[in-house]
Amino acid sequence: MEYAIVDIETTGAYAAGHGITEIAILIHDGSTVQSTFETLINPLQEIPLHITALTGIDHQLVKHAPTFAEIAAQIYHLLNDKVFVAHNVNFDYSFVKHHLAIHGYSWSATKLCTVRLSRKLLPGYPSYSLGRLCQQLDITINNRHRAGGDAEATAILFSKLLEQDRGEIQQMLKKTSKEQVLPPHLPKEHIESLPTSPGVYYFKDQKGKTIYVGKAKNIRSRVAAHFAGQNPNPQRQNFMRHIYAVDFVNCGTELMALLLEASEIKRLWPENNRALKRFEPKYGLYLYEDQRGYLRLAINKHQRYQKALYAFGQLSDAYQLLNTLIRDYQLCPKLCHVHKTAGSCLSTPDNPCLGACVAKEDPNRYNARLETAVHQLKESLPSFCLLDKGRTPDEQSCIWIEKGKFYGMGYISFESALIYPEEIKEHLTPYPSNDYMMHLITTYTQKHPEKIKPLKGHI
C-alpha cells in the first residue's frame, strides 16, 4: 500500500473561494519516503497580507510559478490509487479535490488524518496541532508553514505512528469506517455513544461552548450526516475545524425535539445556527384606542415588536374571527376596519351596530362591550395536555398548553392521572412560548387529536 503525504498552502480557508499557492506530495511505501514532489503555484488571485505574514509567500514569489491547470495532470497521477494522508486531512483533501475537479479530473481517495491517528495512537498530549505535536515528539520542522517543511514533518510523524500501530490504521482505512470524514478534533467515541432515538444534539468547541444546536429523529444518524460529503464552502470548513465534542439530550418524540431545539437556539444563540427555519404568522389582531376614546380592533400584518391579541397564518382566518366578535358583541364593523365607507357603517341584522361609528353610542359603553369580547377571546383559548411516547416504555411525554400558550414539557409516569393536573405541572420544565412553537404543536394536534387531554376547569 502506498501513501501520498500531502501539505498545501492556500490564499484562504475554503476551497470554493481560494487558491493553492504551494503543494508538497511525499510518496511513502509504509516504511520510508520513496519520492517527493514540491512546487509553488500561481493562484491567479491576490494573496492576503496575513497569509504572506504566516507563510512568506507573496505575489512576487509565485508570479512565475505554474498555475494549477498546468500541473493538474501531474498531481492527479501522483495521487491516484494512493491513500491521501495529511494533518487535518479534510482541509487539504477538499482543496485538492475541488481544484482537480475544476480542471476536469474526477478524483477521490481513501483518506487518513494524522491528527485523528495521533489522538488514537498517542493519547494524552495537550495539543495535536502539527507544531505542538512535533515539538512534543522532538520532530524538527524545517521551514514551518511551507508545504515542503510541513509535509516532511508529517511524514516523520506518520512513520512514528506506523511504529505504534497495532492494526488501528487498517481499521480506519476500511470502507465501513466513517472515521476519516469526522472533524479532526472530534473523538470517534463521541459518535459511537450517540443514541438512535429522537432528541437534540450540541456541537461544542475547544472551550466547551455550544456552536451549533440541531434536532433529529435519530441523533446518531443525523450527526453523522453533518460530516458526509466534501462541501468546500467556508461555513462548513470553518464549522468542522471547531468541533471538539458533541453532547445530546434524549427526547420522547420528534415534536419534543423540535420544541427543545427552538428553545435552546434562543437561549444559547450558537454562531452556526444562523437561520432557524421557523413559522412566522403573517397577520395579527391588534387593539388600540382612537382619538375619540373608542377602543378599536384591527387586522394588520404581523408586527414582531407589537403584541397581537391573536396571530394568524391566513388572512381569511383573521377576518372570520373578527366577524364573529362583531356579531356576538355588537361591535361596529367600521371601527373594526371591516367596513371602509364614509359616514356610518353598513349595519345589517347580522351585524347590528349601535352607532359608535357616528358617535351615537357612548365610548365607555362600547369599550366595555369590546373589552368583554377580548376577555372572552382570551378565556376561550385552549388548555390541554398532549400525551405521547416517552424516552422509556414506562413513561410518557407531556406537553402542557395553557390558554393558547405553550407552558412547558417533560416526562411523567404512565400511572400518572390527570385528576390533579397541578401536581403534574410541577414536574414539567417551563419554556418561553412563541408563535413558532405553537404552530408546531397545533399542526401536530390536528393530525393526532386522540393524544389531546383537555384541562378545561382545572386551570
UniProtKB/TrEMBL annotation:
Cleaved signal peptide residues: none
Q: Which organism is it from?
A: Olivibacter ginsenosidimutans
GIY-YIG domain span: 196-274
Output the Gene3D superfamilies linked to this UniProt entry. GIY-YIG endonuclease, Ribonuclease H-like superfamily/Ribonuclease H
The record's SMART domains line, in alphabetical order, gives: EXOIII, GIYc
Query: Pfam families under this entry?
Result: GIY-YIG, RNase_T
Supply the alphabetized keyword list.
Exonuclease, Hydrolase, Nuclease
In Swiss-Prot or TrEMBL terms, this protein is called Exonuclease domain-containing protein
One MF term from GO for this chain?
A: exonuclease activity
